[in-house]
Amino acid sequence: DIQMTQSPSSVSASVGDRVTITCRASQGIRTSLAWYQQKPGKAPKLLIYAASSLQHGVPSRFSGSGSGTDFTLTISSLQPDDSATYYCQQANSFPPTFGHGTKVEVK
Amino acid sequence: QVQLVQSGAEVKKPGASVKVSCKASADTFTGYYLHWVRQTPGQGLEWMGWINPLSGGTNSAQKFRGRVTMTGDTSITTVYMELTRLKSDDTAVYYCARGERSYSPDLDWFDPWGQGTLVIVSS
Question: Which chain A residues in 14-73 lie under 8 Å from chain B, judged by CB atoms?
Fold first, then answer.
Protein backbone atom coordinates (compact mmCIF):
# COMPACT_ATOMS: atom_id res chain seq x y z
CA ASP A 1 0.00 0.00 0.00
CA ILE A 2 1.11 3.58 -0.63
CA GLN A 3 2.14 5.40 2.54
CA MET A 4 1.10 9.03 2.91
CA THR A 5 3.24 11.18 5.22
CA GLN A 6 2.03 14.57 6.38
CA SER A 7 4.03 17.35 7.96
CA PRO A 8 3.94 19.03 10.30
CA SER A 9 1.79 16.97 12.66
CA SER A 10 0.47 20.18 14.16
CA VAL A 11 0.71 23.90 13.53
CA SER A 12 -0.44 26.94 15.46
CA ALA A 13 -0.97 30.22 13.63
CA SER A 14 -2.82 33.51 13.95
CA VAL A 15 -5.87 34.75 12.12
CA GLY A 16 -4.80 36.07 8.73
CA ASP A 17 -1.63 33.95 8.54
CA ARG A 18 -0.77 31.81 5.55
CA VAL A 19 -0.56 28.13 6.50
CA THR A 20 0.97 25.38 4.37
CA ILE A 21 0.65 21.63 5.02
CA THR A 22 2.72 19.06 3.15
CA CYS A 23 1.82 15.52 2.11
CA ARG A 24 4.36 13.11 0.63
CA ALA A 25 3.47 9.81 -1.07
CA SER A 26 5.76 6.78 -0.84
CA GLN A 27 5.53 6.45 -4.63
CA GLY A 28 4.27 8.61 -7.46
CA ILE A 29 0.52 9.16 -7.56
CA ARG A 30 0.29 11.70 -10.42
CA THR A 31 -2.36 14.21 -9.25
CA SER A 32 -4.68 11.65 -7.63
CA LEU A 33 -4.79 13.34 -4.26
CA ALA A 34 -7.56 14.71 -2.06
CA TRP A 35 -7.55 16.87 1.05
CA TYR A 36 -10.13 16.70 3.84
CA GLN A 37 -10.95 18.85 6.84
CA GLN A 38 -12.22 17.24 10.03
CA LYS A 39 -13.50 19.05 13.10
CA PRO A 40 -13.80 17.32 16.49
CA GLY A 41 -16.72 14.91 16.63
CA LYS A 42 -17.56 15.42 12.95
CA ALA A 43 -16.99 13.49 9.76
CA PRO A 44 -14.28 14.53 7.30
CA LYS A 45 -15.25 17.02 4.61
CA LEU A 46 -13.72 17.03 1.13
CA LEU A 47 -11.90 20.28 0.37
CA ILE A 48 -9.67 19.57 -2.63
CA TYR A 49 -9.60 16.74 -5.18
CA ALA A 50 -7.31 15.94 -8.09
CA ALA A 51 -4.58 17.77 -6.15
CA SER A 52 -5.80 21.28 -6.98
CA SER A 53 -9.54 21.30 -7.73
CA LEU A 54 -11.69 23.05 -5.13
CA GLN A 55 -14.80 21.16 -4.06
CA HIS A 56 -18.10 23.05 -4.45
CA GLY A 57 -18.80 25.37 -1.56
CA VAL A 58 -15.26 25.38 -0.17
CA PRO A 59 -13.85 28.87 0.47
CA SER A 60 -11.29 30.08 -2.05
CA ARG A 61 -8.68 30.65 0.67
CA PHE A 62 -8.03 26.90 0.43
CA SER A 63 -5.81 25.74 -2.41
CA GLY A 64 -3.87 22.64 -3.33
CA SER A 65 -0.86 21.96 -5.51
CA GLY A 66 1.63 19.28 -6.41
CA SER A 67 2.05 16.14 -8.45
CA GLY A 68 4.01 12.91 -8.29
CA THR A 69 5.04 12.47 -4.67
CA ASP A 70 4.87 15.95 -3.11
CA PHE A 71 1.72 17.94 -2.42
CA THR A 72 0.69 21.00 -0.43
CA LEU A 73 -2.50 22.37 1.03
CA THR A 74 -2.42 26.12 1.60
CA ILE A 75 -4.79 28.27 3.61
CA SER A 76 -4.06 31.76 2.33
CA SER A 77 -5.57 33.72 5.22
CA LEU A 78 -6.34 31.61 8.27
CA GLN A 79 -9.77 32.08 9.83
CA PRO A 80 -11.07 30.97 13.25
CA ASP A 81 -13.35 28.42 11.57
CA ASP A 82 -10.31 26.69 10.03
CA SER A 83 -9.31 25.15 13.34
CA ALA A 84 -9.41 21.42 12.46
CA THR A 85 -7.35 18.41 11.47
CA TYR A 86 -6.49 18.08 7.78
CA TYR A 87 -5.90 14.78 5.98
CA CYS A 88 -4.55 13.90 2.59
CA GLN A 89 -5.66 10.79 0.69
CA GLN A 90 -4.28 9.15 -2.44
CA ALA A 91 -6.55 7.65 -5.08
CA ASN A 92 -3.98 6.45 -7.61
CA SER A 93 -3.22 2.98 -6.33
CA PHE A 94 -5.51 0.40 -4.70
CA PRO A 95 -6.37 0.62 -1.87
CA PRO A 96 -6.96 4.32 -1.20
CA THR A 97 -4.85 5.43 1.76
CA PHE A 98 -4.80 8.46 4.06
CA GLY A 99 -2.17 10.51 5.81
CA HIS A 100 -2.19 10.67 9.60
CA GLY A 101 -3.36 14.24 9.73
CA THR A 102 -2.16 17.75 10.56
CA LYS A 103 -3.86 19.59 13.39
CA VAL A 104 -4.25 23.32 12.75
CA GLU A 105 -4.82 25.54 15.76
CA VAL A 106 -5.88 29.15 15.40
CA LYS A 107 -4.29 31.28 18.12
CA GLN B 1 -29.66 17.56 -0.30
CA VAL B 2 -27.35 14.58 -0.12
CA GLN B 3 -27.59 12.83 3.20
CA LEU B 4 -26.11 9.72 4.65
CA VAL B 5 -27.61 8.76 8.01
CA GLN B 6 -25.98 5.97 9.98
CA SER B 7 -27.17 3.74 12.80
CA GLY B 8 -26.28 4.30 16.43
CA ALA B 9 -23.33 3.28 18.56
CA GLU B 10 -22.68 -0.37 19.36
CA VAL B 11 -20.79 -2.21 22.08
CA LYS B 12 -19.66 -5.72 21.21
CA LYS B 13 -17.59 -8.45 22.77
CA PRO B 14 -14.49 -9.85 21.09
CA GLY B 15 -15.42 -12.51 18.58
CA ALA B 16 -18.86 -11.07 17.92
CA SER B 17 -20.12 -9.35 14.76
CA VAL B 18 -21.48 -5.86 14.16
CA LYS B 19 -23.73 -4.58 11.39
CA VAL B 20 -23.80 -0.85 10.69
CA SER B 21 -26.43 0.72 8.46
CA CYS B 22 -26.26 3.81 6.26
CA LYS B 23 -29.44 5.27 4.78
CA ALA B 24 -28.90 7.29 1.62
CA SER B 25 -31.06 9.68 -0.33
CA ALA B 26 -32.58 8.11 -3.42
CA ASP B 27 -30.37 9.87 -5.95
CA THR B 28 -27.23 8.91 -4.05
CA PHE B 29 -28.37 5.30 -3.77
CA THR B 30 -29.02 4.95 -7.48
CA GLY B 31 -26.19 6.99 -8.93
CA TYR B 32 -23.09 6.46 -6.82
CA TYR B 33 -20.89 3.92 -5.13
CA LEU B 34 -20.94 3.99 -1.34
CA HIS B 35 -17.77 3.40 0.62
CA TRP B 36 -16.92 2.44 4.17
CA VAL B 37 -14.03 4.12 5.97
CA ARG B 38 -13.12 3.65 9.60
CA GLN B 39 -11.18 5.88 11.98
CA THR B 40 -9.18 4.49 14.86
CA PRO B 41 -6.86 6.27 17.29
CA GLY B 42 -3.99 4.03 16.26
CA GLN B 43 -4.37 3.61 12.49
CA GLY B 44 -6.19 6.82 11.64
CA LEU B 45 -8.45 6.71 8.59
CA GLU B 46 -8.66 3.33 6.84
CA TRP B 47 -10.62 2.62 3.67
CA MET B 48 -12.50 -0.65 4.01
CA GLY B 49 -14.45 -1.16 0.79
CA TRP B 50 -17.25 -0.09 -1.52
CA ILE B 51 -20.65 -1.28 -2.64
CA ASN B 52 -22.62 -0.52 -5.77
CA PRO B 53 -26.05 -0.23 -4.13
CA LEU B 54 -27.99 -1.10 -7.28
CA SER B 55 -26.01 -4.12 -8.47
CA GLY B 56 -24.78 -5.28 -5.08
CA GLY B 57 -21.25 -5.52 -6.40
CA THR B 58 -18.54 -4.96 -3.81
CA ASN B 59 -14.80 -4.74 -3.34
CA SER B 60 -12.79 -4.45 -0.16
CA ALA B 61 -9.27 -3.89 1.07
CA GLN B 62 -7.22 -7.04 1.47
CA LYS B 63 -6.97 -6.39 5.21
CA PHE B 64 -10.71 -6.86 5.67
CA ARG B 65 -11.48 -9.61 3.17
CA GLY B 66 -13.08 -12.58 4.81
CA ARG B 67 -14.39 -10.45 7.69
CA VAL B 68 -16.38 -7.69 6.00
CA THR B 69 -19.66 -8.03 4.12
CA MET B 70 -21.36 -5.09 2.44
CA THR B 71 -24.97 -5.36 1.34
CA GLY B 72 -27.82 -3.10 0.30
CA ASP B 73 -31.61 -2.94 0.48
CA THR B 74 -32.99 -1.01 -2.48
CA SER B 75 -36.48 -0.82 -0.97
CA ILE B 76 -35.25 1.43 1.83
CA THR B 77 -32.15 2.91 0.09
CA THR B 78 -29.92 1.60 2.84
CA VAL B 79 -26.55 -0.11 2.74
CA TYR B 80 -24.99 -2.22 5.47
CA MET B 81 -21.49 -3.11 6.55
CA GLU B 82 -21.06 -6.21 8.68
CA LEU B 83 -17.71 -6.93 10.33
CA THR B 84 -17.22 -10.33 11.94
CA ARG B 85 -14.76 -11.86 14.43
CA LEU B 86 -14.34 -8.51 16.14
CA LYS B 87 -11.13 -7.71 18.00
CA SER B 88 -10.33 -4.88 20.39
CA ASP B 89 -8.46 -3.01 17.67
CA ASP B 90 -11.66 -2.89 15.61
CA THR B 91 -12.84 -0.27 18.08
CA ALA B 92 -13.40 2.71 15.80
CA VAL B 93 -15.80 5.17 14.29
CA TYR B 94 -17.17 3.67 11.09
CA TYR B 95 -18.24 6.02 8.30
CA CYS B 96 -20.13 5.52 5.08
CA ALA B 97 -19.29 8.00 2.35
CA ARG B 98 -20.32 8.66 -1.22
CA GLY B 99 -17.74 8.10 -3.93
CA GLU B 100 -17.19 11.04 -6.24
CA ARG B 101 -15.80 9.15 -9.25
CA SER B 102 -18.49 6.74 -10.45
CA TYR B 103 -16.15 5.37 -13.14
CA SER B 104 -13.42 4.39 -10.68
CA PRO B 105 -14.76 3.09 -7.38
CA ASP B 106 -11.45 1.41 -6.48
CA LEU B 107 -9.66 4.76 -6.69
CA ASP B 108 -12.03 7.34 -5.36
CA TRP B 109 -12.44 10.29 -3.05
CA PHE B 110 -15.36 10.73 -0.78
CA ASP B 111 -18.02 13.36 -0.21
CA PRO B 112 -20.23 13.61 1.71
CA TRP B 113 -19.79 11.34 4.70
CA GLY B 114 -22.31 9.99 7.17
CA GLN B 115 -22.16 11.15 10.76
CA GLY B 116 -20.23 8.06 11.85
CA THR B 117 -21.04 5.06 14.05
CA LEU B 118 -18.90 4.32 17.09
CA VAL B 119 -18.24 0.63 17.59
CA ILE B 120 -16.58 -0.38 20.84
CA VAL B 121 -15.17 -3.88 21.17
CA SER B 122 -14.58 -4.79 24.78
CA SER B 123 -14.93 -7.80 27.03
Answer: 32, 34, 42-46, 49, 55
